[in-house]
């Protein structure tokens, strides 16, 4: 093709100078008449033909446009609980997806798949309703197919705080979705304790560490709580060649990828891939930035992001207002600039947290962790303002006063012996202490009295 174009140009240039001035035309003709130039053109043609024959066309398609993949009719979705009656009835033994011996492997593509499934946000089901519809799910949100050996063991890790309705919608939708794929799976919900700024990426690091303590999972699916998959051909398995970004077509973005480096929503990595990129960053407090940081980590770790076809990776986002405590991160751009130098120090190797609870619920494993607070965040807001002269205003004023450093007097609950021995009743004692100028931080049966050293009652 290239040689043919060159010959055509030579023939055309003898009779026309429409495209080029004559001096330039003569120079190009002399260049093309040289044997080495023609040999170079022939070699280039052979290289292009070989590239296309070895799958280069697919690479060009991925470069210049997203692969649309197979066609699905999303106007007629099936119920998300379709085909579950065809599953073998025997539930798995307690203890999670440990493989029984002697079973054949499940098919590479489950025969139970139905394609597009319906997604409804109303009514929000109760936990009891979800449990009733998923009788084969074991404590901790574990499941494995009873009739065959699954080809993948997948841990679903969901960062969470104050999104109970979203969590129930996800559990109602995701359990049957995964069962039809004939996977062994477990769902982990990682709850951030306290009211500090939300940190999605750090919670995912916590979830990965806690999940890997239970099983040698083949695949880690990092899943936002407000995204529901719409096509069960979107398999929740990992790609051994590199990290997968799965939520490629969300209704929020008109079912298209917002930009090529986007890695948010739902992603999948093997444990080795996750550790190779040092996990996710711990320093992104609030909304925004961590997805781009993660995509940069993938590249710096020498890996490439893969994606399912756009027609398969459909997700619907649960409508919600902005979260209190998850405001836009004002430092995200400063952090992104430093990713190239910080990714090897900020991640799984620097993760610190305090595990507060680990519970096996009927539909998921709940992990509650104290991950600290944003060191650059604002200080706690001041307390409420009460009407002048009210008892609340008096107490607030007393709490804000700082007495000279003196030994504190502590009264234990009145059912136990007190530090100060007196025959006075509790109301009389409080009145006497008020007269002495003591500070009463709490008005209950247990009092901590500051600045009352040396008082004789």
Automatic annotation (TrEMBL):
The keyword Transmembrane helix applies. Residues 368-390 are annotated as: Disordered. InterPro entries: Galactosyl_T, Galactosyl_T_C, Galactosyl_T_N, Nucleotide-diphossugar_trans. It catalyses: a beta-D-glucosylceramide + UDP-alpha-D-galactose = a beta-D-galactosyl-(1->4)-beta-D-glucosyl-(1<->1)-ceramide + UDP + H(+); a neolactoside IV(3)-beta-GlcNAc-nLc4Cer + UDP-alpha-D-galactose = a neolactoside nLc6Cer + UDP + H(+); a beta-D-GlcNAc-(1->3)-beta-D-Gal-(1->4)-beta-D-Glc-(1<->1)-Cer(d18:1(4E)) + UDP-alpha-D-galactose = a neolactoside nLc4Cer(d18:1(4E)) + UDP + H(+); an N-acetyl-beta-D-glucosaminyl derivative + UDP-alpha-D-galactose = a beta-D-galactosyl-(1->4)-N-acetyl-beta-D-glucosaminyl derivative + UDP + H(+). Its EC number is 2.4.1.-. Its main location: Golgi. Pfam families: Glyco_transf_7C, Glyco_transf_7N. Keywords: Disulfide bond, Glycoprotein, Glycosyltransferase, Golgi apparatus, Lipid metabolism, Manganese, Membrane, Metal-binding, Signal-anchor, Transferase, Transmembrane, Transmembrane helix. Residues 378-387 have a biased composition (Pro residues). It is an enzyme of class 2 (transferase). GO terms for biological process: carbohydrate metabolic process; galactosylceramide biosynthetic process. Its cofactor is Mn(2+). PANTHER family: BETA-1,4-GALACTOSYLTRANSFERASE, BETA-1,4-GALACTOSYLTRANSFERASE 3. This is Beta-1,4-galactosyltransferase. It comes from Marmota monax.
């Amino acid at each position: 093709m290239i040689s043919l174009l060159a010959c055509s140009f030579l023939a055309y240039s003898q009779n026309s100078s429409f495209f080029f001035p004559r001096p330039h035309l003569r120079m190009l003709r002399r260049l093309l008449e040289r044997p080495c130039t023609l040999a170079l053109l022939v070699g280039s043609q052979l290289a292009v033909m070989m590239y296309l024959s070895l799958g280069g066309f697919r690479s060009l398609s991925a470069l210049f446009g997203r692969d649309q993949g197979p066609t699905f009719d999303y106007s007629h979705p099936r119920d998300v609980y379709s085909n579950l009656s065809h599953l073998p009835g025997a539930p798995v033994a307690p203890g999670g997806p440990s493989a029984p011996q002697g079973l054949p492997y499940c098919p590479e593509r489950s025969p139970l798949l139905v394609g597009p499934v319906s997604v409804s946000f109303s009514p929000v089901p109760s936990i009891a309703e979800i449990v009733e519809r998923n009788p084969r799910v074991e404590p901790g949100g574990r499941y494995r197919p009873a009739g065959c050996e699954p080809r993948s063991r997948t841990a679903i890790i969901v960062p969470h705080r104050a999104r109970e309705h979203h969590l129930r919608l996800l559990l109602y939708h995701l359990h049957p979705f995964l069962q039809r794929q004939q996977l062994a799976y477990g769902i982990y919900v990682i709850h951030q304790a306290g009211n500090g700024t939300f940190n999605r990426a750090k919670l995912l690091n916590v979830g990965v560490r806690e999940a890997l303590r239970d099983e040698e999972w083949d695949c880690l699916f990092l899943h936002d709580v407000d995204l529901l998959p719409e096509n069960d051909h979107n398999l929740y398995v990992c790609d051994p060649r590199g990290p997968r970004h799965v939520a490629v077509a969300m209704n929020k973005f008109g079912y298209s990828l917002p930009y090529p480096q986007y890695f948010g929503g739902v992603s999948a990595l093997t444990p080795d891939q996750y550790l190779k990129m040092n996990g996710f960053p711990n320093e992104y407090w609030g909304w925004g930035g961590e997805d781009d940081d993660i995509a940069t980590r993938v590249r710096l770790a020498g890996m490439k992001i893969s994606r399912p076809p756009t027609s398969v990776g459909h997700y619907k986002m649960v409508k919600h207002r902005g979260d209190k405590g998850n405001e836009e991160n004002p430092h995200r751009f400063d952090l992104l600039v430093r990713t190239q130098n910080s990714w090897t120090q900020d991640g799984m190797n620097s993760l610190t947290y305090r595990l507060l609870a680990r519970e096996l619920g009927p539909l998921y494993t709940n992990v509650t962790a104290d991950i600290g607070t944003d060191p650059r965040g604002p200080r706690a807001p001041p307390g409420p303002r009460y009407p002048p002269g009210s008892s609340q205003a008096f107490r607030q004023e007393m709490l804000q006063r700082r007495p000279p450093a003196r030994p504190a007097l502590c009264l234990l609950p009145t059912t136990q012996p007190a530090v100060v021995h007196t025959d006075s009743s509790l109301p009389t004692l409080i009145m006497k202490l008020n007269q002495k100028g003591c500070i009463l931080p709490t008005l209950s049966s247990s009092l901590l009295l500051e600045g009352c050293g040396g008082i004789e009652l």
